[in-house]
Amino acid sequence: MTRIRTGVLAAALAGLTATAAWAEYPERAINMVIPYGAGGATDISARSIAEPLGNAVGQPLVMANITGAGGATGSVAVQNAQPDGYTMLFARVGSHSVNPAMKATLPYTLDDFRFVNVYEINPFACAVAAGSDIQSMDDLIAKANGDGVAFSSSGVGSGLHLGAVMVLDAFGVEDAANTATHIPQQGGGAAATAVLNGTADFLCTNSSSVASFIANGQMRPLLVTTPDPIEGFDAPSAADLGKPELERLVGWTGIAGPADLPDDVAAKWGEWMAEATSDENFRTVMESRGSIIELMGPEEANAFIQTQYETFRALVDELGMRIEG
């Protein structure tokens, strides 16, 4: 009888051990939602960090572009996912600072997500096609006040939407939100394409998404929203042009899960991102695009995102861009 009991106990312990090992996170691939289209700042950032992050995680990362509604569609997909760490979001300034600030009927709030980090900050750059007759910000503003201009963005309520209006307003264009023609696209890559093919006159977007077009001579930068010029961008800074208020216009990328993401899962992401963001190749690629790689932990990230939201909400109210419907 003792042998039987011992055998049963051993089997039970073995089963518990197997269950614990099976439940170790992560035990399978992780779905990573990119809420914007290919070629935009979020997509570039996500795919640049995918390899070092995947190495740190030790499981495949399944990258999926779920686009629409200025980043809201992909965000909602993560908001409604199981909070088990197997569906995570590349959160962005547009989806989680500008969108909540602009849209009264947005189907989520910042409280619907748990931000495990912010790892990238990048300035904005305003740019035109290389063949454009707009050579400077003076030319752009003269055209805006004359025949009118059209700008592209990654969607209504996106960072690119607010950014262009904010820049035009800073340079004295009256009722900038309605004076310029807004041409929304499905993502930052499509917004850049609209400028390249002449559908739009200009865009104001994150430096990372136009760096390659500027480097190969397809685009001309007019302005960067930094105190100092950016290497590779032959354009004056906001400070150079006497518009230091535009330095508030910056992008950021972080990773978030559903609100109820467990503490132990969030802690894992802290470890993985510390390793991934120290990868020299990743840093070189992103810094060459004007990005600053700076890893913020959960508390710092949440405080930063809240401040960004409040900043953009004040700007939205000032510019009359709140979307109530």
TrEMBL record:
CDD domains: PBP2_Bug_TTT (cd07012)
Superkingdom of origin: Bacteria
Record keywords: Signal
Signal peptide residues on this chain, from the entry's feature table: 1-23
Recorded family membership: Belongs to the UPF0065 (bug) family.
Protein name: Tripartite tricarboxylate transporter substrate binding protein
Lineage: Bacteria, Pseudomonadati, Pseudomonadota, Alphaproteobacteria, Rhodobacterales
